[in-house]
Amino acid sequence: MTSDFDLDEPLTFDVVAETVGARRALIVRLVQRGLIETLDGPTDEPLLPRRAVVQLRRMQRLRRDLGVNFAGAAIILDLVGRIEQLNRELAEMHRLK
Amino acid sequence: MAAKIKDYYGVLGVKRDASDNEIKQAYRKLARKFHPDLNPGDKVAEEKFKELQEAYDVLSDPENRKLYDQYGENWRAVKAGAGAPPPGWEGAQRSARGAGPRTGGFDFGDFDFGSFRSQGAGGFDIFEEMFGGAGRGRGRRSGRGADIESELELSLEEAHRGGRRTLEMQVAEACPTCGGTGLKDGKPCETCRGSGQVLKPKTIEVNIPPGVRDGSTIRLAGQGGTGSNGSEPGDLYLRVRLRPHPVFTVKGDDLEVELPIAPWEAVLGARVEAPTIDGKVELKIPPGAKSGQRLRLRNQGLNKRKGGRGDEYVRLKIVVPKDVSPEERRLYEELQRISRFEPRS
């Protein structure tokens, strides 16, 4: 059984594009717009963390199902993450009361 | 008792003569409310969204909608070539909801994502349908199994120490009787009730390394949906959810715990036992400790993924006895008499 916990595993743009079924040019464009963050690598070639695959798929789903663009999807995911964090903290506060 | 036919129009809350645009608007409105990416971990929303998606898949396609209007839920079998279903077959596909051939797919404009709709390659939750089929139609990775996303709930101790967890899942596979077509001898397959898929139990062993956190994602390569025509299987992504701990509060790599102490322990100082994630340790309370004061137990926090540990913070809480004996009361009164302490000065 292979389990891979390293979502920081560096992937090339081509691999990410292939995995999510998108064109490389789209991945480049999303990175240029700051919607996906690259890794600081030892080489000149920018790399993406594996978590970008998960993020891209969520963005794809939001685009498909809700009709939002990629910038909107990125903001939505960011806000959902923050809400989740706040909900956890709220639950924790209630628990400690 | 007759099985209830699913009303896709009712699911979307539109009239039967609704326009394509009205159907799309209704779907989008409800999808915003129930989308799994906007309601992570909410199984009710996930189920509701599955229904929405199924309804929209059918009603957004003119051909499918026409068949559905004419034949109800049996439209899939009709479309697959069985002709009008025999009397009494209504509802036979109910248990295989959404597992038939999909003809959905959306216009992605200038973005070449193709269709993300699954080809029915298997999976056990809604994300399978969403992840499946990436890139197909362009000759890349065609037939690769669908990626699956699910949640894995862990105790704080499991996340700290790591361990091994066995997951039992139901994964859809092509029906062995009909080969995935849903039809056998021109009739709906009895094994899969015309869906073309059967659910098979699958056991997966997950090695949990020490140091995973709430929100971490674990990838199990090759444990997603089965690939078609010998293609590689998809991956399984497990999102870690930590159960709230009755004693500890997690702050990143650190733990926080509240420790009740007696007034005299606060004034005089004491050595007491404090709980840690690995058991009890002795903690020295300095004389003059205050309520709310935090004492650090270095390296008693959670294991980190890449080595090392966080710290534990013990928050002191001075508590007073509810009932005091006559002797205790006398001593408190004596203390009151002789003490020069002015807490409000």
Structural notes for this entry:
The complex is a heterodimer of chains A (97) and B (345). Chain A has 97 residues and is mainly alpha-helical. Chain A has helices at residues 13-20, 24-32, 51-66, 70-96; strands spanning 10-11, 48-49. Chain A is 62% helix and 4% strand. Chain A starts with 9 loop residues before the first strand and ends with a helix. The mean pLDDT of chain A is 84. Chain B is of the alpha+beta class. Helix content of chain B is 25%, strand content 24%. Chain B has helices at 8-12, 20-34, 43-59, 62-71, 75-82, 126-131, 156-161, 263-268, 326-338; strands at residues 148-154, 163-174, 183-184, 187-188, 197-208, 217-220, 236-242, 249-251, 254-261, 270-276, 279-285, 294-297, 312-318. In chain B, a hairpin with a 2-residue loop joins strand 10 (270-276) and strand 11. Mean pLDDT of chain B is 77; it is low at 84-141. The interface between A and B is large, with 37 and 47 residues.
Reconstruct the topology from this structure.
The complex is a heterodimer of chains A (97) and B (345).
Chain A: E1 10-11, H1 13-20, H2 24-32, E2 48-49, H3 51-66, H4 70-96
Antiparallel strand pairs in A: 1-2
Helix pairs in contact in A: 1-2, 3-4
Chain B: H1 8-12, H2 20-34, H3 43-59, H4 62-71, H5 75-82, H6 126-131, E1 148-154, H7 156-161, E2 163-174, E3 183-184, E4 187-188, E5 197-208, E6 217-220, E7 236-242, E8 249-251, E9 254-261, H8 263-268, E10 270-276, E11 279-285, E12 294-297, E13 312-318, H9 326-338
Parallel strand pairs in B: 1-7, 9-13
Antiparallel strand pairs in B: 2-5, 3-4, 6-7, 8-9, 10-11, 12-13
Helix pairs in contact in B: 2-3, 4-5
The total of beta strands of chain B comes to 13
Q: Count interface residues per chain for the largest interface.
A: A-B, 37 and 47 residues
Number of helices of chain A: 4
First-last Cα distance of chain A:
43 Å
What percent of residues of chain A adopt helix (DSSP H or I)? Answer: 55-70%
Q: How would you describe the shape of chain B?
A: elongated
Overall geometry of chain A comes to globular
Oligomer: heterodimer
